[in-house]
Amino acid sequence: MSNIQILEMDSQLLEGVGSFCLRSKKKSNGYINKNKWLNTQFEEGLKYVQLIENKKQVGFIEYTESENSSRVVFAANYLVIHCLWVSENGKGYGTKLIQKCIQDAKASSKSGVVVLTNPETSWTPSKEIFIKNQFKQTETGPHHFELLVYPLKPNDSLPTFPTNWEERTQKYEGLTILRSFQCPYVEIATENIKTAARTLGIDVNIIDLKTREQLMELAPTPYGIYSVVFKRELISFHRLTVRTATKRLRELM
């Protein structure tokens, strides 16, 4: 019989168990930066919950209050889900983790729960599991981003995206990477862009988004934590291979 445990991480548990993503490369900069970021965010109320079955990690969910979120969305008094991942579909893992978040939102008298999805990338959770758990899509954003909401207080305002996305990209003529270490794969994604840029003789400007205020003002997509802009055009909001990055940059030179 399976023994399933929901484990809410803290700094002490993180040191022993570690974060889920990139756990096979615990000495990598991406993994180290993610764990540092988690320790800082635990102090701000972030929840990083792992699902353990028979002593094996089979999934996790990460969420926090909107004022500390790494997603570019106006969502006062909501919880915002950053990530959801499970090792196998059809086991109910995702639903268990989502329901944990919803219960926390209810216990904290939140207006609801928000999540960002995008069918064009695996860097956001899949939409289907949230629809199954009674989330409703309330808005669409640029580059196929979707805003899904589980409302708990029908009279409260629904979350919204900013509307000045094009204005944000116009700030960056040179090759610019805007990033946060909320995701451990940001380090790899950054290095791939830098390698492609060196091949083409292009200088790279990196902006580390260290505060919620910076992210809400500067990030050119709802995803927030990773964007590559060149010649005032968005190149990517997720990891590209060196070959693909080189091709996209060359097309704009």
From TrEMBL:
GO terms of molecular function: acyltransferase activity, transferring groups other than amino-acyl groups
Domain N-acetyltransferase intervals: 35-109
CDD domains, per database record: NAT_SF
Keyword Transferase: yes
UniProt entry tagged with the keyword Transferase: yes
UniProt keyword list: Transferase
Highest taxon, organism lineage: Bacteria
Full protein name: GCN5 family acetyltransferase
